[in-house]
């Protein structure tokens, strides 16, 4: 996925191993939320996970779901969940979760903060910037230092302003969505990971 363009594609400083893994997880969520997985993505996701933590177990469950899925089944599920006829089962936009409507004040505030960071919507991407996939991709870039110092205060500020108020609820809804099969463990991974990020930011404050 390439939903956003930053002022710089080079990391500012080298992220440590923890920040690198955080960025990988944010980017995985972004990729799966942006579009249905192709065969290569299913194969990659099918190798994820290791036991020993709730998040590791959730990644193992996601890997099992990926191995059991097909590209066609994943495409149909993605359509049911996020597109539908008129509207999918879930509406993965910050404005909708925070106000009940699309293209509201949360989107305007997000666009202002993205402009300050030098981040713009990638050409050819029709989605508003407050799509969950785009926000996850921005978090990956902030954590790994593409848009400033790696893992720094900018990531925490962006998370607190634009993800923390709603994205945990979105992932919980995805986890419980009636159409979700492959995406049920995506919801679990997202929910657990957001909880970890929230705790880490609070401890660092």
What does this structure look like?
This protein is mostly helical and 205 residues long. Mean pLDDT is 91; it is low at 7-11. It has one domain (14-204): Orthogonal Bundle (TorD-like). It contains ten helices and two strands; from the N terminus they run E-H-H-H-H-H-H-E-H-H-H-H. The longest helix is centred in the last third of the chain and has 22 residues, at 183-204. Helices cover 62% and strands 2% of the residues. The relative contact order is 0.19. The chain has helices spanning 17-34, 39-45, 54-68, 71-83, 94-99, 105-117, 132-144, 153-162, 167-176, 183-204, and strands at residues 4-5, 120-121. It has a two-stranded antiparallel ribbon.
Keywords:
205 residues, mainly alpha, TorD-like, 10 helices, 2% strand, globular
Helix fraction bin: 55-70%
CATH fold label: TorD-like
**What is the general shape?**
globular
Mean pLDDT metric:
91
Domain count: the total is: 1
Order of helices and strands: EHHHHHHEHHHH
Structural class: mainly alpha
Q: Please report the distance between the alpha carbons of the first and last residues.
A: 31 Å
Query: What's the total count of β strands?
Result: 2
Indicate the radius of gyration in whole angstroms: 16 Å
How many strands, what sense, and barrel or not for the largest sheet? 2 strands, antiparallel
Low-confidence stretches: 7-11
